[in-house]
Amino acid sequence: MKRILFIILILMLALTAIPAAKDISAHKDKKKNTVSPGVEVLLKDQKELLKGKKVGLITNPTGIDSELNSIVDLLNDDPDIELSALYGPEHGVRGDAQAGSSVGFYIDEKTGLPVYSLYGKTKKPTPEMLENVDVLLFDIQDVGTRYYTYIYTMAYAMEAAQENDIPFIVLDRPNPQGGLSVDGPVLEPEFSSFVGLYPIPLKHGMTVGELASFFNEEFEIGADLTVVKMKGWKRSMDYDDTGLPFVLASPNMPTVSTTFVYPATGLIEGTNVSEGRGTTKPFELIGAPYINSANLAEKLNSLSLPGVKFRAASFTPTFSKHTGKLSHGVEVYVTDREEFNAVPTGLHIIKTIHDMYPNDFQFLAANNFSLLIGNDWVRPMILEGASVAEIMYEYQNEQDEFKEVRKEYLMYK
Question: Which of residues 241, 265, 284 is at a domain's end?
């Protein structure tokens, strides 16, 4: 009898423990937000910056608060703020335009506000676009890589604000890759373009607000600039550490993982190898019809590059390079974000494919690769058989010089 009662008692204790275990598990799955983006700080503590002024807003779908509310709606619904115009970067305010597609002027259906495109023929707001604006506000998530165009939309808008005597406010957001790592060649001025306007390294390790201050002073824009800082962000944090939701930064930048590989595999855009556009994993899948995927994966893994592994993979792009053609290559897996060296990894991938397939691999015409890498000497070094270590040695001094100047503009320690 005692044994039966003991068994019943054990069963009752086990049953009552199950809900508690579920509660603990559910609690662990809920990651508390540790960072407040600039938009939340603005609306909570610094709304006076906008009161009584007609606000022009430069944004896209990444302009959200921690509850996924769009800054367009937050400002438009706020009785203390008069939102007067919207401006969209590449891919548009609603993020529905593919890479390279121009978006014309239109009226936003939800707000009734005029929407001006800052990509295509007009990258810099004209005086006519700013007629009904007292202050320009910028809130867009950057991805931490030089050849992503949003930071140059910001720079051109800062120039327009200065020329039209309009204050410019940047609502800061995290660098998804963190704020510690700086890597890659510094862009040489003669290769300035919309995928690299200023001489900064390929991976700059700065927030968009820090870059705004850097651009404003170092390149003498001279705008009346205010940066609304985040609360709670530390340089050691990558985006997953912030607790903030990640909205795809553009159609081919869907996840935080994509931002980490982008400084590496984005360079492949300058070659005849697909960088994965037209697949479900852009920049994580790379390949071409002429590649043997197993051989490439084996060769790249044999290099023992830190923080990364390569899986043999095949795919058929639905658009961009090799549309409709079965392509073979690798999927890039970042296994340790702190150890991963994106730019050297990208150079190793390109050099390896060139060395394995010298008769098939090509750099694209029109200086595409040179604009991405920011110079005209890396390409011939690869073609002539130089090692990645030799290439890295060539850009180390300028990178170190940038790091020293960069220190003056770091807002988060």
Answer: 241
**Per-residue pLDDT tens digits for 78-123:** 999 999 999 999 877 865 555 555 667 888 888 999 999 999 889 9
Residues 236, 273, single domain; the answer is: no
3-state secondary structure of 281: coil
Straight-line distance from the first to the last Cα atom of the chain, in angstroms, rounded to the nearest whole number? 67
Strand order in the sheet with 308-315: 285-288, 327-334, 308-315
Query: Rounded to a whole number, what is the largest CA-CA distance in the chain?
Result: 92
In a domain, 75, yes or no: yes
Which residues does 88 contact at the CB level (< 8 Å), separation at least 6? 58, 59, 60, 94, 103, 115, 116, 117, 118, 119
Q: Between β-strands 54-59 and 135-139, what pairing exists: parallel, antiparallel or unpaired? A: parallel
Radius of gyration (C-alpha) of the chain in whole angstroms: 24
- Give per-10-residue mean pLDDT for the chain (413 aa): 45 40 35 86 98 97 97 96 95 63 77 92 95 98 97 98 98 98 97 97 98 98 98 97 96 97 98 98 98 98 98 97 98 98 98 98 91 97 98 98 98 93
**Domain for residue 411, yes or no?**
no
**Is residue 394 a part of any domain in this protein?**
no
- The tokens for 96 are 């529905």
What percent of the chain lies above the pLDDT cut of 70? 90
- Residues 352-363: tens digit of each pLDDT: 999 999 999 999
CATH code for the domain of 216 = 3.40.50.12170
Q: Rounded to an integer, what distance in angstroms lies between the CA atom of residue 237 and that of residue 177? A: 8
Same domain, 139 and 188: yes
Tell me the pairing of strands 327-334 and 285-288. Answer: antiparallel
The answer to whether 141 and 62 are in contact (CB under 8 A) is: yes
pTM of the model: 0.90
Left, alpha or beta for 232 (phi > 0: left; psi -120 to 50: alpha)? left
What's the structural domain count of the chain? 2
Same domain, 172 and 199: yes
Q: Round to whole Å and give the CA distance between 106 and 342.
A: 39
Same domain, residue pair 217 and 285? no
Residue 207 belongs to domain spanning: 38-241
Domain match, 171 and 228 both: yes
